[in-house]
Specification:
The chain is an alpha/beta fold and 332 residues long. The chain has helices spanning 57-64, 87-93, 104-107, 114-126, 130-143, 149-152, 162-175, 192-209, 220-226, 244-249, 254-261, 326-330; strands at 11-24, 27-41, 46-50, 72-77, 80-81, 97-100, 180-184, 212-217, 229-234, 237-243, 308-311, 314-316. The structure holds adenosine-5'-triphosphate (ATP) and magnesium ion.
Length: 332
């Protein structure tokens, strides 16, 4: 029987590790793009997962919607252990857990109308009777700011703009009536001018429908706008977790400080680093950021890096937290 967790979080990721087979000079080897990652998300909370390309963000999102199988650790949803599920249990989970992808065009079927996209999940997940379908489709389209609904419902994806398509994708995920949505870079392929509108819709899902969100992004500025807390990932490992305000105003990990340097208006006294991709091999040791970190010590390259609490809701995986606090202040 599946084990269960206390009910104070809706989503709990506990020590998650994911392994993929990879070819290394013709020989079979493995990478661990996600290693011992833990976080939780409360009902109605938005948690951002921030990190550069290849840090394992999408892979974590895909484990939560049960597309990728965990190698180690546990996943819980509403107290239920969902680490390993059969196909019937996965289908049932999808009425409560949905995912929104980066590319809205690829996510939609070019041969189906907007109405058809929304009717399917309404029927499958909510068993809406035929007589109510038109009304529910109109409500969903209005909920994501698509109007006039009567005109839009008969269109095909190619007849819509990128922003309208992403609204349809959001409406389709809402049609399942989920309690949790993984939004994987939902605005990064959209025109800058419409990104704010889509982020507002997502924020509204939290505020009015109390839906929990895992917001995956490269971009700390949008993470701060949308999320209650931020988890910073590097090389598949958690570097820092804290309230959005703490992460942006009081970053403790050198990598978080580096990310903030990329936010306009925050350039300046922050560590510089090379662009080397992190080692994801199973054999790697120590902190994945050590090769790029300006403060690296010998122990950073070898030992386990404990996660330390540096505030009531703020944790950092960095040995600097155990050494002289003046190092950060006096370093280049
Ligand atoms: N199915 C797979 N098989 C093998 N390797 C994979 C697979 N999926 C992802 N990877 C590798 O895992 C690592 C993490 O990928 P992931 O897509 O999770 O990163 P990401 O943080 O989402 O990056 P991006 O910001 O570019 O979307 C990458 O090195 C990627 O090549
Ligand atoms: Mg990704």
């Amino acid at each position: 029987m599946a084990s269960s967790e206390p009910q104070n979080s809706l989503v709990k990721v506990d020590n998650l590790t994911v392994r993929f087979a990879a070819k290394n000079r013709g020989r079979r080897s493995y990478i661990e793009p996600v290693r011992q990652v833990s976080f939780d998300i409360a009902p109605g909370e938005v948690l951002a997962l921030v990190g550069e390309s290849g840090s394992g963000k999408t892979t974590i999102g895909r484990t939560l919607v049960k597309v990728v199988e965990p190698f180690g650790g546990h996943l819980y949803f509403d107290g239920r252990d969902i680490t390993h599920l059969g196909s019937r249990a996965v289908r049932s989970l999808h009425s409560e857990v949905q995912m929104i992808f980066q590319d809205p065009f690829a996510a939609l079927n070019p041969t189906a109308t907007i109405q058809e996209h929304l009717v399917l999940p309404l029927r499958v997940y909510q068993r809406v009777p035929s007589t109510k379908l038109n009304l529910r489709v109109r409500e969903l389209l209005e909920q994501v700011g698509l109007s006039p609904a009567e005109e839009l419902r008969h269109k095909y994806p190619h007849e819509l703009s990128g922003g309208q398509r992403q609204r349809v994708v959001i409406a389709r995920s809402l049609a399942a009536n989920p309690r949790f949505i993984v939004a994987d870079e939902p605005v990064s392929m959209l025109d800058v001018s419409i990104r704010a509108d889509i982020l507002k819709i997502l924020r509204n899902l939290r505020d009015s429908l109390k839906i929990s969100l895992l917001y995956i992004t490269h971009d700390l500025a949008s993470a701060r706008y949308l999320s209650d807390r931020i988890t910073v990932l590097y090389g598949g490992q958690v570097m820092e977790v804290g309230t959005s305000r703490d992460i942006v105003k009081n970053p403790r990990h050198p990598y978080t400080r580096l990310l903030l340097a990329a936010v306009p208006g925050r350039e300046g006294d922050l560590p510089q680093a090379s662009e080397a991709a992190p080692d994801l091999s199973v054999e790697r040791q120590g902190c994945p950021f050590a090769p790029r970190c300006p403060y690296t010590m010998d122990d950073c390259r070898t030992g386990d890096i404990p996660v330390r609490s540096v505030g009531s809701r703020h944790q950092v995986a960095c040995l600097l937290e155990e050494t002289d606090k003046d190092v950060l202040a006096s370093a280049p």
